[in-house]
Amino acid sequence: MEDVKQETCQSVPIVTEWIRLDALLKLAGAADTGGEAKVLIQSGRVLVNDEVCLQRGKKLRPGDRARLLDSKTEYAVSQRQEP
Q1: First to last CA, the chain
Q2: 3 state DSSP class of 16
Q3: Which of 9, 17, 44, 75 is 20 to 30 Å from 31 by CA-CA measure?
Q4: What is the pLDDT of residue 81?
Q5: Are 8 and 76 spatial neighbours (Cβ–Cβ below 8 Å)?
Q6: Model confidence over 24-61: pLDDT tens digits?
Q7: Of 34, 40, 36, 35, the residue nearest 52 (C-alpha)
Q8: If you write DSSP's letter for every residue of 47-63 in order, what string do you get?
Q9: Which candidate, 72, 62, 56, 71, places its Cα nearest to that of 18?
Q10: 52 pairs with which residues across the strands?
Q11: How far is CA 58 from the centre of its chain?
């Protein structure tokens, strides 16, 4: 029997046009602090749209996805509708 990883997708709504990668990781709860997010990114452990990203300030827009290499959770940036 195969060990199948069950991946989940967590929507991360933003009200701005874009969000920096390090801020997304903090907002989504993938990193507890900005310093932890920086280390994760600079160590090559973060994928953006299925490619390793080393840019802490990378701008992510609605439709972009981020994931930690050792995580089953993907974070999808979405646009929050203002009331």
Answers
A1: 49
A2: coil
A3: 17
A4: 77
A5: no
A6: 999 999 999 999 999 999 999 999 999 999 999 999 99
A7: 40
A8: EETTEE---TT-EE-TT
A9: 62
A10: 47
A11: 11
| Cα distance between residue 5 and residue 24, in whole Å | 23
Q: Rounded to whole angstroms, how far apart are CA atoms 66 and 48?
A: 4
Pairing state of beta strands 65-68 and 73-79?
antiparallel
3-state secondary structure of 24: helix
Place of tokens 């840019």: 55
The number of beta carbons lying within 10 Å of the beta carbon of residue 73 is 14
At 61, phi and psi to the nearest 5? -115, 165
β partners of residue 66: 48, 75
Neighbours of 47 (CB within 10 A): 16
What is the pTM (predicted TM-score) of this model?
Answer: 0.86
Question: CA torsion sign, 5 to 77 to 11 to 32?
Answer: positive
